[in-house]
Amino acid sequence: TDRSSRCTLGRAYEHLKGRKDAQEFSRDKSEAVDKALDRLERFNWKNGVLYKMYSQTDGMSIDELLGADDVIILEAGKLTGNYLTFIFGMITASVYTYAKYCENNFLGEDQYETLLVIEEANKILTGEDSGGQDSSGGVQGEPIFDEMLDQAAGLGIFVVTITQKPTKMPLSVITNSGIIFAGKMSYDKDIDLVMA
What we know:
Elements: H1 2-5, H2 9-21, H3 27-40, H4 49-54, H5 62-65, H6 81-101, E1 114-119, H7 121-126, E2 128-130, E3 133-134, H8 143-151, E4 157-162, H9 171-175, H10 188-195
Parallel strand pairs: 1-4
Antiparallel strand pairs: 2-3
Helix pairs in contact: 2-3
């Protein structure tokens, strides 16, 4: 919507930091707020690339991103690590949340079905980067992704996940996969998981 396109990551950082400085959060929420502020801080650096990309008020809203007849490709480019998982995780969650609260979901006559392709899904959905090490940049344990993978088709969203590391994926992805395409694999645990 128009309102959401004016909400930038820089503004989100400033708002959250202001509330933290005013001690509006209980002790049990303080650690989560600190983690969010840590991820958002670079989006508020006025001369930084992330600020220029994600903190401008002329950005697009999620309904503009999901055009009726468009194919949208989100390319990470030089965005890596925690920022890649944070941004792509946020976009993925936003697509699902928008569909969930959109009238008739994406199934109304004035709407459209959406194919959501998540490449390197193990990074986006769990924060797993490589070798089983958690980069803590993803959305580990977030119930919205489990819900999305379970309910998305009923809302008009069809999710395709791509990974080179099936064992690093959340179990809910494997459980909710109607079809699994597998290329050559050498890691025994990946093979066992796909063949199960």
